[in-house]
Amino acid sequence: MDAVFKALADDGRRRLLDRLHTRNGQTLNELCEAMNMSRQAVAKHLGILENANLIVTQKRGREKLHYLNPVPINDIAERWIGKYERTRLAALSALKQALEGDRND
Amino acid sequence: MTKEKFLYVTYIRSTQEKVWDALINPAVTQLYWNHHNVSDWKPGSVWNHQRCDGSGKIDITGKVLETSPPHRLVISWADPDDTSRFSRVTFEIEPTNQGVKLTVTHDELEAGSSMLRGISRGWPMVLSSLKTLLETGNAIDLSKF
Q: Which H, E and C letters describe B36-88, residue by residue?
């Protein structure tokens, strides 16, 4: 769980997860577009995310595709959210999103 | 039509046999998935994802495409009201140092479909619940979602 929190504690890595959330299964080249980061830096961030099991990779021919794996984030949520709170929290999140727009920060 | 694919991975402190049983044994799927997974699990057989609230309603149906216990299970996946559109789910169970790695690949999904929206919320919850059940003996109560 430490690895997940450390991986998430970086804006660049959260943006990479956002990109995969928008479109799953991208290559390193695709993820480098519009990131304002060197290819090497993006590759390093992806490695940290993969070690934390937040992304999963799969080979397709010579390409490596990156997929968002939200299961560890759900594991964290389950640890502190009680079963009777879930519906109300989902309603609150939906309300906040509707009022503020789709902000990710 | 664009097809989408999702990959989910969870590491579970358990054995391949227990994880396999948790996928195909309705008495266990009831505990963490709030449904019975019902089939004889032979290639070509039908499998159903059936409510256990007494209504017997089938929420997902499909066929067993490939089975290799306790490593790999491939099933097709459809809304019983629209069996013209099948997606595919592959479960792979690999041993690791401290237990097993369970990979769920859900592919052949139609982009923008309601099935895609449902499963992309559903799988993380189901896999967290399965992990919790096998590691602690208590599952997450998915009926409250």
A: EEECCCCCCCEEEEEECCCCCCEEEEEEEEEEECCCEEEEEEEECCEEEEEEE
Q: Is residue B142 part of a domain?
A: no
Q: What is the CATH number of the domain that holds A57?
A: 1.10.10.10
Chain A contacts of B141, Cβ < 8 Å?
83
Could you tell me which residues of chain B have a Cβ less than 8 Å from any Cβ in chain A? 4-11, 103, 123-125, 127-129, 131-132, 140-141, 144-145
Complex ipTM: 0.84
What is the residue range of B86's domain? 3-136
In a domain, B44, yes or no: yes
Identify the bridge partners of residue B126 per DSSP, sorted by sequence position. none
Q: Cα–Cα distance between A55 and A67 in angstroms, integer?
A: 5
Query: Would you give per-residue pLDDT tens digits along chain A (105 residues)?
Result: 899 999 999 999 999 999 999 999 999 999 999 888 999 999 999 999 999 999 999 998 999 999 999 999 999 888 887 666 777 777 778 778 778 876 554
Is A65 part of a structural domain of the chain? yes
